[in-house]
Amino acid sequence: MGHRPAWFLLLAVSAGCQSLASVETPSESAAEASAARELWEQGQDAMRRGQPDKAIACYEQSLAVDASLAQAHLSLAATYLELGNEAAACPHLGMYVEARPNEGMLRAHYAELLFRLNKPNEAREQFTRYMADAQEQGEPASSSLIHCHSRLMEIAQKENDAYAEHLNRGIGLLLLARARVAVDDPGGDQDREGLLCKAAAELALARLEQPDEARPCWYLHEVWSQLAQRQPADRWLREADTAAPFSSLTPAEQRGLQLACACRAAETPRK
Q: What is the pTM of this model?
């Protein structure tokens, strides 16, 4: 069946473990819901027996009975991935993510699948949505965010989008530098400072490409704050605050900017 993606097991576990009760809507009859669930379970049993073709038929029949059965789309995606058919898996994984938008890791897998299938516009949209959600999780999502920015940088390179390329490389380097803090390495501080300086250079180039955008300024503030350089950090904070009303910032970035501005205002002596 070929080499399975590293994230196939996550799909398979999700397909086998999640409850179906939440997918029934008030407009569905109890008989339809029961029939769709029975067909889905038959598909699961077929997969356990090593009969993917039969499983696909059962999942498709369950969707014919209940088109809103999101779990059947996830199971179809997992089965097609088991067969090595990423193109067939992609739309089903997309329909599942649309139905269950809060399942961030599956959105990340969907974005990666779109990237592998050379669908840059769709992949960029999903990586961007995942990024905004992952920022809300803080430190636990840092490694996945680094990968996300790496992919966005690759897409930008292919599309000759210098702004997005420099921006995402810069943010990725900043996140990597933060991740190095947790590593017990005698030379880690020097390595971290080197990453932060590289991040500052990339973000400055992004700023030159799009002078009116707030995101390069906000992350330049973050970089210089990490380097304990108050004067440039404050300068970029002011620039970010000025540009923010006319820029696209994620909710987490907006909150971070507002909090940083409030802290600076509180520290400024009144005349």
A: 0.84
